[in-house]
Amino acid sequence: xxxxxxxxxxxxxxTILNKTFSIFLCGLLSFNSVGCYANFKDNxxxxxxxxxxxxxxxxxxxxxxxxxxxKPNINLDLQQALPQDFxxxxxxPFSSGKREIYLISPSTKAQQIYTVNxxxxxxxxxxxxxxxxxxxxxxxLTKRNRLILNRIKPESLNDFQVxxxxxxxxxxxxxxxxxxxxxxxxxxxxxxxxxxxxxxxFSQVNRTEETLIATTKSMLLTSSNCNQxxxxxxxxxxxxxxxxxxxxxxxENQITRNVGLALxxxxxxxxxxxxxxxxxxxxSCERAVQCNEKRVSGASEMRSDLFEIPRGANPKVALExxxxxxxxxxxxxxxxxxxxxxxxxxxxxxxxxxLPNNAEYVGVRLIGNLDPKTRWWYVISCSESAxx
Length: 388
Description:
It contains 8 helices and 19 strands.
């Protein structure tokens, strides 16, 4: 048995060692390259510098392809690096059936303006404007994301706009005019003069049928679980925008990377907004103020409401408000304009307002005094006696 084992090893072992050493050396120097030539014919193996007349063949035919090093997948999460203190300051209704919801960060003065539908309609996110975007707080990023951000080298991201169609990303325009146009499967990146810079294809697996339905399915805002539904819809939108942003941020082109970073910031802003105490879902689902409904505050705050205008020709309403001893301010908005403003002042006041025939809502903003002892209330009446 010992003699047989020794004989077997004597025959087999040199071949195994030859092949093992050859594969190791060629793996180090690259198979069938100018630095290595592997030959496994006739039960033998060689690893030498390849002759100058050797015809290099495709590796996949003879030995097998060695995987090339791929770029790591980018997962640029900016959620914690953006301001967390955004507050709703104004709701601007438009006769077109849309409204703008203004949010501002007191600590950084950054602004976000969301364009959505009016109450009692199906939820639609039409667009977002970002203004005075602050420098990203890199101390709250992971080490990996800091390296990604340093590689992207963001430019022209102080202001940008994002447009949506049927709750899906359709276009983004940076401050310098560079832009991206999007479908479910493709992004076309253009320069400010409209020249196509790059076309990026997206994988179909990014959007499953279930999540696509969750994003685009119509939903009335009068349902009892409105807040949860809007939050879920915005979360899905944020996820899709984030995936597309990460894809673009891995590009070799600077303009494409900037668009990708803007999308990553958009995704983070949406997710932060969902979790905010003054969130977009709360504003979208809140019932509009009705005639003769009194709104009262017991502290210093900035309150933004929508008042539903009663239907009828030449609508008139009576606005009454009391600021007591500490001065406060009240403002009314419609179609991008301030239609009434008073303050800061004290005491009780009453005004009659003529409203446009085609208007359905008026935005009401009450700015409380910084003094925590301030008190105020307002009411909008629609009866003829109150108007008289």
